[in-house]
Amino acid sequence: MSHVRDLQIDTGCPDTRALVEHVTSKWGVLVLLALDHRTLRWSELKREIAGVSEKMLIQTLQTLEADRLVRRDALPVVPPHVEYSLTDDGHRAVELLAPLVQWAQHQVRS
Amino acid sequence: MSHVRDLQIDTGCPDTRALVEHVTSKWGVLVLLALDHRTLRWSELKREIAGVSEKMLIQTLQTLEADRLVRRDALPVVPPHVEYSLTDDGHRAVELLAPLVQWAQHQVRS
DNA sequence: TGGGGTACCCACCTCGAGGTGGGTACCCTG
DNA sequence: CAGGGTACCCACCTCGAGGTGGGTACCCCA
After folding, report:
1. CA-CA distance, B32 to B47, in Å (whole number)?
2. Host domain of residue B45
3. Which of B59, B85, B83 is nearest to B73 (CA)?
4. Which parts of the sequence belong to the HTH hxlR-type domain (chains A, B) (predicted)?
5. Residues 43-102, chain B, touching A (beta carbon < 8 A)
6. Per-residue pLDDT at B59 exceeds 90
7. Closest nucleotide over all strands to A62 (CA to C1')
8. Most exposed: A54, A92, B95, B104, by fewest CB within 10 Å?
9. The domain spanning residue B60 has which CATH number?
10. How many domains does chain A have?
11. ∠ Cα B40 A14 A71 (to 5°)
12. Tens digit of pLDDT for each residue in A23-77?
């Protein structure tokens, strides 16, 4: 029994909702898990995350960057070279997210 | 650094995705948090969770029941009296979900 | 007798998440 | 000099999540 209500959880707040949605979204989870492992370039992410469309990858990265969970480093060279990595907040998000995903994974297998 | 990849997390699995979506969905979170606190009747839930439509409340409860996170007890009386409560799996889900929501809440406030 | 409460079901509609396919500017390689 | 790689942007379209509003069968209370 966690009695979360006592901890003043209010998911009615739209901003909180949005952040939860970003990190638990289909591509958000995959991006966070991929980057938790190591820094990746855009094209590496695209290959790593099978099935993602370019639009959704960009969109996901942009929202996670706006949430300050993902860091974007664009090296001023040509051809373009852009590196994506997790911020400390991003790593923290994965720490909280991973147990939930693992639990869900275990649930469906039984 | 959690190195979740080493823990064989595969969010590509549609069933795992679905379960994660159910528990992190707008109304799913609110239902789980409300029921974590105590058993509630349908009409109590509707009042407790401000802004939820009847359709979404029913739909959310049905999917969470199918996921075996919520238990439905319909007393065979008239007028109908139906009680909803969390299963052990449901409480476990809240245990994992609550820290994520709390973290998100804290993030947006800073 | 009619108005309200209980716990739903069903048809319809909107609107935005997400996919598809094109274009861009620049470079290197064959 | 044509083709491929990099890291995107943009217009269009589909489809389903979620909302709205109706109906149901039964009861109690005024």
Report:
1. 15
2. 2-109
3. B83
4. 13-110
5. 50-51, 67, 89, 91-102
6. yes
7. D8
8. A54
9. 1.10.10.10
10. 1
11. 125
12. 999 899 999 999 998 999 999 999 989 889 999 999 999 999 999 999 999 988 8
